[in-house]
Every structure is written in structure tokens, then in C-alpha cells.
Amino acid sequence: MSFCSLDNQILNMMLPTAIFIFISSYFLLTKQLMDKFYEWCYNKLEGIGLGYASSLVDIYYYGYLIIVLPTPEDSHRSKGIEDRIRAFRQEEDLTIEDFPVERLFLLVTSSGFAPPDLGKFDFSRNRIEARKNLTLEPVLKRNGVKDRKYKTTVYKIYNKDKSQHVSVVLEAAPCLRTLRDSAQKNPLLDKFRLHIIKTFSERLKLILNEQKQCQNKCVIIFCDEGDQNYNLADDIWEKVKEFEALDYDGIRTGYKRRSHETNAIQTINPNNWYFKYFIEKMYYHLENRGLGYASAMVDNYFYGYLKLVLPDKGTDDMIGIRERIQHFVDDERDSSDVTEDRFPCRKLLLLVTASGYTPSDISEFSKDRIKIFKNLCEEPVISRNGVKRRTYRTTVYQILSRNKRDSYYGVIEGAPCLRQLHEAAKCNPVLKCLRLKIIKQFIFHLKERLKTEDCRNLCEIIFFDDDDLNINLADLILEKMSADN
């Protein structure tokens, strides 16, 4: 055999290997570059309040914490966390030593998941025990839903030898649970999950300490589930002892914001060329991959609400929307004009406005033709994220025909996350500029999610331009009902 033919054989053997190594290296390098690009883009968007974590913070702060933490000016309507803890002490005959900290302890886990009962969390080490819910819970009309309740749960925290315990209000952030649920179906989101959770925690701390009505009313506890030695009970116990070292007034005012701590949201002019030709395109690029502001709203609303109230789970506490509507019609048939024909749409009618705002009572959009009627019965009752027996309410509205002679009924409400977008946009010019585009992205992504088997044909989205005075919401709802029928 000649040297030339031997060289050719060796070359033929090595060439495929070399090509494989070259292609693998190319794709590996390209993947690493893309990962760095996504990370850079994501951090850029978070810096101006357009990222996934920013959306979760806005949802949780404007949709929950601002309701349960401060005592409103109209204190007869509801009580803040401090007043409710004091009332609980009195009801349960507890001393300040028994229940020393008048704050909400918020658990943030590195996975985003927290069990329904935090006493059964692996990292509680059998030293955390659920007591009961705080009384005087806020009950509000919100986003079209009548008498929505905001529950919080008290837990006992034991010391190491279980000879003593203190009580605290403890729960996990529900929006992080929905992040975790969505990340299981989105590999890119899963890759960013821990980064999102840490950004959420940092941003929320800053907002809570900037907003006067919520200062010193919430303690964020981060649990690294990768640390097998971590003990949640120890962490809470140490923080309680830190607060006990202060005087009683210090418990409420003990945190002093460091001079370098500011809200991480950067200001940017949404009308300049940099925003229009760079930031906005970057936003859409990440939004289409599930990392944008609208994606977080959809994940939170779908996994945190619609997946709970729409499908029938086959239990007394988890009856589906169609079954509940049918039971409602059966119960009301003899005492009102509610009949099968008068309740033509057996779905949840989700109102999405161009501004994102939905009033407490949807009849405010058409007072002469839309009236609040009653809540659906058999509301889902679920223990979730550390809160015992959280209720999920939905409201039935009466819609009158144009001549006001005929009445029709439907389950109608607004998406709470859009109300929070509306509130956040007041403080962020970038959100205000992109609000309508974000809302349209929300509608698009949500329609895709609603195609899943257990939610298909159970929710209908109604888009309403609340700036157009020529459009009557009652007409839009009746059109949607007749089309569905």
C-alpha cells in the first residue's frame, strides 16, 4: 500500500470527526453567545421595569401587599397588618412576647415553589405549625368581583428544643409559584428562574422601603433550597429575636434604609430613537420567548387563577365554571328570571380594557344596562402558598338589552394583573408608553394558553376600548353571548 493511499484513508477517517468537532464547537459557542445575549437583554429590560421580575413585583405589590399591609384612610372598610395582628392577640389572649412582630413574613424560595401548608415544607424541620387565619380580613370589590377576600395565616415557630414558640404571619409569594409552573414548560424561562426570583426579591425590598404606607410591614426571607443545612424555623426565629431586641415602637420602625438604596428602575425617555429602535425591539424579542412583562402577567393569571377556577377537578371544593353556572341557574330559577336562555354563555367572560383598568364594579362602564347580581356559589376553596382555605370568587352580572326589557346574565370580571399594570404605569413612563402593546401581547399569549385541554372553551376575552365613548360595553357583552350561543 502506497503512502498516498494510506494518507487518504487516514484523512477519510479523520475528516468526519473534524467536521463533527467543528460543528459542535460552533453550535456550543453560538449557544453560549446567545445565552449571554439573552441575559444582557433581560437585565437591560429589568433595569427599566419591562422584565419578567418587574412584572411579578408590580402584580404582587399593587394587587396584594398594598391591600393587606397598610391600614387605609377609611379604616372602617378594612384593617392593615399591624391592626389585625393586635386584634388576633386580643382574641387569642396572647401577649406581645407570644406574637412579637407586627409584620408579614414573606417566604421566597429558590425554586419558586412553596407547599399549601408551610408547616409541611421540608426546610421547616418540623418546627413550624399552622394556627389559624388572621381575622378582620380585607373584603373588597375589585376588578368586577364582589366581596373578594384577602386571607393571611398565622404560624407557630418553635425554637430548637421546642420548649418555646412565637407566632408570626407567614406566607409565600403566589406569583413565584406561577413562575415555577410556567418554567416547567419553558426551558429558557427555567434557565432564568433563579435570576428572576432574586431580582424579584431585591426589587420588592426596595419598593417596600420606599413606599411610606408599606415601610416596616414586611420581612422577606430567602430560602436557598440547594443548601440542605438551611432551616427556615431558625431563620425566622433569629429575625424575631432581632426585632425583640428593639423597643416595641422599634418593631414597627426598626428598618432604616441605607443611603445607597434606591429604586432600581432607571428612567428613560420612551420617545427617543434609542427606545423606539432598540429597547422596544429587544422587548418583543424576549416577550416572544416568555421573558417579558406580558408573559409574567399571563403566567400569573393563568396558573394562579384560571387553572384553578375554570376546569372541573371533580371535588366539592373544586367545581368547574360550567358546573357552577348550571347549579346557579338551577338555584335561581324559582326566585328570579334567571333561566337557561337568560344565561346563554357558560364561560368566564374576561374583560380586558385598553387602559388596563377595571373598576371595582363593572356596571360603572354602563350604569343603565349593567348591574351586579350575585356571586356564583360553590366557590373554589384552596390552601395555597401557605395561606389556609383561600377562596376564589366570581361574580354574575345582569345585562339589559337596548330597550331594557330583557335581562341576560353572565360571569364577568377583569384580569387583576392588568389593573396592576395600570397602577405601575403611573410611576413608570416606559410602561405607560407601551401599555397598550403589552395588553395586546397579554391577550395573544393568554388565548394560546386557553387552548389547553382543561381550559378550552371555558373563557372568552372581551376587549373594550374604554376611551371610546361611542362603544357601549353592554352591547359588546351581548354580542359575545349571542355569538357563543
Automatic annotation (TrEMBL):
Show where the STING ligand-binding domain sits: 52-241, 293-483
A GO BP term here is: autophagosome assembly
Q: Name one GO cellular component term.
A: autophagosome
Q: Where are the transmembrane segments?
A: 12-29, 49-69
Could you tell me one molecular function GO term of this UniProt entry? Answer: 2',3'-cyclic GMP-AMP binding
* Pfam family for this entry, one: STING_LBD
Q: Which InterPro entries match?
A: STING, STING_C_sf, STING_LBD
Q: Which UniProt keywords apply?
A: Membrane, Transmembrane, Transmembrane helix
User: At the top level of its lineage, which domain of life is listed?
Assistant: Eukaryota
* Protein name, entry field: STING ligand-binding domain-containing protein
The uppermost taxa in this organism's lineage are:
Eukaryota, Metazoa, Ecdysozoa, Arthropoda, Hexapoda
